[in-house]
Amino acid sequence: MDLGTDSFVRIQEEPLSVEAAVDFLGRGDPGGVDLFLGITRRMTGHKETVHLEYDAYLEMAVTELNHIVANAAKSWPLERVYVAHRIGTVPVGQISVIVGASAKHRNEAFAASRYLIDTLKSEVPIWKKETYADGSTEWKPELAVHEPTRRSVGK
Question: Whole-prediction pTM value?
Answer without folding.
Answer: 0.88
